[in-house]
Design goal:
Elements: H1 3-8, H2 10-33, H3 47-53, H4 56-81, H5 94-99, H6 103-118, H7 132-152, H8 163-195, H9 200-229
Amino acid sequence: MTITEILLSRQLVLALVAYAALSVLEAVLTARLHPRPSKTTQTGLATRNLLFDVDPGVWLWARIYAPLLRAGALLAFMLIAYPTLFGLSEMPSVTALLGDQEVRFGSMLGVIFLLALALPLLPVIGTLPALILPLQGAAAAAMLFRWLSQDSGAADVSYWPGSATVLGMVVVSVAAYWIATRVARIIERVGHKHLEVADLGELAFEALLLFLQAPAVILYATALGRQLAD
């Protein structure tokens, strides 16, 4: 299957819609539980926001529950898109791949979640937010491919997709992030001016990001999948 065929497949579209719905849900809940800073007082302190910042429930949501929900959204995308994501069709079902070993599901969710917390702290990657989601997706794809190759009896598989693929992933990721940011800003201005709706741009950004960055994850996954198709 070509990249275009994968992107236009019903299975991948369904996976993207599921991801977008969960991402918007997470953004809505975050906006309600952790609102934007209030106007500053005469002393220059946003008193209301400081109170929210020290609220244990809000801190747990922002640092634990929201990233966990985003990890679950990405995991849902990966599992729904399998095996089309790898450019494959005749492969064991996702329930067969995960069903015999329940620890696999928890492992994928845990890795995606930990990457969401750790990657922004790294010196180089932390300054490039455009790479965070594709790297999470690539890690999840690598785990799925590892189990798939093991269950298929494949030997001597590689997780390095090649320099050209990596370069393509970086270009797609950065370009997609830039486009999503610009579109979200336009939607934010329109929503604020004409609809009087706050945080509309943030919701649009969350929904758009994987739609636009999906080709980067697919580039990596199909590079892996070709080893089983040969």
